[in-house]
Amino acid sequence: MAAVQSLASLVDQRLADALAAVLPEREGVAADPLLRRSDRADFQANGILALAKRLGRNPRELAAEVVKRVPAGDGEVISSVEVSGPGFLNITVSDEALLSTLAERAADDRLGVPFAQRPGVTAIDYSQPNVAKEMHVGHLRSTVIGDALVKILEHRGEKVIRRHHIGDWGTQFGMLIQYLTEHPQELDHGGETGGGEDGGEAAMSRLNRLYKSSRALFDSDEGFKERARARVVSLQAGDRETLDLWHRIVDESMIYFRAVYDLLDVEIEEADVVGESAYNDMLDETCRLLEESGVAEISQGALCVFFDDIKGQDGSPVPLIVRKADGGYGYAATDLSAIRDRVGTLGADTLLYVVDARQALHFRMVFETARRAGWLHDEVRAVHLQFGTVLGKDGKPFKTRAGESVRLIDLLEEAVRRAAGVVAEKDPKLTEAEVAERAAQVGIGAVKYADLSTSMSRDYVFDLDRMVSLNGDTSVYLQYAYARIQSILRKGADRGDSVRPLAHPSLTPEPAERALALHLDEFDQTLRSVTETYEPHRLAAYLYTLASHFTTFYDQCPVLTADSEAAVQNRLFLCDLTARTLHRGMALLGIRTPARL
Ligand SMILES: NC(=[NH2+])NCCC[C@H](N)C(=O)O
């Protein structure tokens, strides 16, 4: 089905035409009407003010001239347009245009959201925990934000390559593997088959034990330290036995990650887990190419890239170290190789990295190096989507009392427990299994929404009380709005009032219906702006406003007890489209909308 033209774009087009007609000889003057939603009328256009200023004209006069050229009245999209204030235009659209646009949206499975005209190939690097380590709140942000972006981009028709650049390589593996060769029983499952209820937790505790014991030996025993170092060399050289043990450690970690992802209700495909180790074979060549092209040079034995504008506090240059003086490759060599792979081999034209803001300098240097080397050419965009820190209630980075990072799994379990309380209190007749199912949807939704509704660059406080609250900007509020609509639709259907495809366009909508309808019409614009800015919080904000408009509508406009059959039909139609939009929007954020709450 053809894309549905939103009311804003229909109005915008008519205003732009009128402006062009008033200023025929002024082709060079950009005449954006600067349309936005308004409380005074349906829309307000502010663009004439700036234009009049540039032309040295009186804005109200110019506005009056434009108004004369705007087609308005019977049979037109715009029913009235007026000059207001210093030269704004207040615009009201016709009821017919409003309802028929919505009817078109409702008739479309995609709710009128078009596919991108020129979809590209985006490689997105997100959810990249580290093997043999815990997942903490930072990994929550990367996972949740990345997952939402993937869903939204794909919904608009973009080809998306997911990359989970997990930390599965490096010197610490020498220590872990060496310890395993000397204590082969260390990762034994003790008779259990693994993968069971607490398979994930059990795997993590075995890894923790392995980590602690090998670390202790590494720090106290010089001989072991030597053997661990030699083991790193065997690992990089691809020694069979060493690789087998490395795989055991990675697999064990994957069992744990999988358990966290399941709880988090996020799908991660095995094939997309392409960790640091995957680029091992490219590292030599990456360094050779950088050195040959002169992009990198040897400095104090290390292979470095220098930048004029990147200096330390004492004014000395801070280089990107691609290969250390001891010959070991760093994090940067891997990221540079990954760029060559993602652009050169996989054909990505956009590279996104959903990574902690603390790695900003690393990515700045890596991107600049890749540009100099020609691996990132003009047609490729590379963006570090930096996210802020999750804070505790004290406003400091979220830590346990012992000063350790808080385990993600503990937070998620606590969120589900809190949600169970809320769910059971709301409906005491629920069975235990029903409470458990809803609590998972509510609790995990709450954690995801709290993250996604905050602008990603900002820090936020992890406050479960606020997150699972029924009031305010929370996912529970949105889920309740959805469930309430479902209950209205069920009651309507029970008495024979089902949702009809077309509303009655001759009925004059109440103000609350108008506001809801106009907002429903903004869904595709919202998604477009998320794909342009990579800011999922715009969708969260849209959905929250949608639920608020619905709440007002529901308070002011009886649905099943409306005055006329036609009004009942129109309102059921609005309810249904609101529910479908909420459901779609929440799904794109990775949040469930249970039919009953
Ligand atoms: N391509 C990348 N460097 N991605 C980010 C990896 C994040 C890293 N594993 C961490 O936990 O901090």
Automatic annotation (TrEMBL):
<keyword id="KW-0648">Protein biosynthesis</keyword>
<dbReference type="InterPro" id="IPR001412">
    <property type="entry name" value="aa-tRNA-synth_I_CS"/>
</dbReference>
<dbReference type="InterPro" id="IPR008909">
    <property type="entry name" value="DALR_anticod-bd"/>
</dbReference>
<keyword id="KW-0030">Aminoacyl-tRNA synthetase</keyword>
<keyword id="KW-0963">Cytoplasm</keyword>
<dbReference type="InterPro" id="IPR009080">
    <property type="entry name" value="tRNAsynth_Ia_anticodon-bd"/>
</dbReference>
<dbReference type="InterPro" id="IPR036695">
    <property type="entry name" value="Arg-tRNA-synth_N_sf"/>
</dbReference>
<comment type="similarity">
    <text>Belongs to the class-I aminoacyl-tRNA synthetase family.</text>
</comment>
<dbReference type="Pfam" id="PF05746">
    <property type="entry name" value="DALR_1"/>
</dbReference>
<feature type="short sequence motif" description="'HIGH' region">
    <location>
        <begin position="129"/>
        <end position="139"/>
    </location>
</feature>
<dbReference type="InterPro" id="IPR035684">
    <property type="entry name" value="ArgRS_core"/>
</dbReference>
<comment type="subunit">
    <text>Monomer.</text>
</comment>
<protein>
    <recommendedName>
        <fullName>Arginine--tRNA ligase</fullName>
        <ecNumber>6.1.1.19</ecNumber>
    </recommendedName>
</protein>
<feature type="domain" description="Arginyl tRNA synthetase N-terminal">
    <location>
        <begin position="9"/>
        <end position="93"/>
    </location>
</feature>
<dbReference type="GO" id="GO:0016874">
    <property type="term" value="F:ligase activity"/>
</dbReference>
<keyword id="KW-0436">Ligase</keyword>
<keyword id="KW-0547">Nucleotide-binding</keyword>
<dbReference type="InterPro" id="IPR005148">
    <property type="entry name" value="Arg-tRNA-synth_N"/>
</dbReference>
<dbReference type="Pfam" id="PF03485">
    <property type="entry name" value="Arg_tRNA_synt_N"/>
</dbReference>
<dbReference type="InterPro" id="IPR001278">
    <property type="entry name" value="Arg-tRNA-ligase"/>
</dbReference>
<feature type="domain" description="DALR anticodon binding">
    <location>
        <begin position="478"/>
        <end position="597"/>
    </location>
</feature>
<dbReference type="InterPro" id="IPR014729">
    <property type="entry name" value="Rossmann-like_a/b/a_fold"/>
</dbReference>
<keyword id="KW-0067">ATP-binding</keyword>
<dbReference type="Pfam" id="PF00750">
    <property type="entry name" value="tRNA-synt_1d"/>
</dbReference>
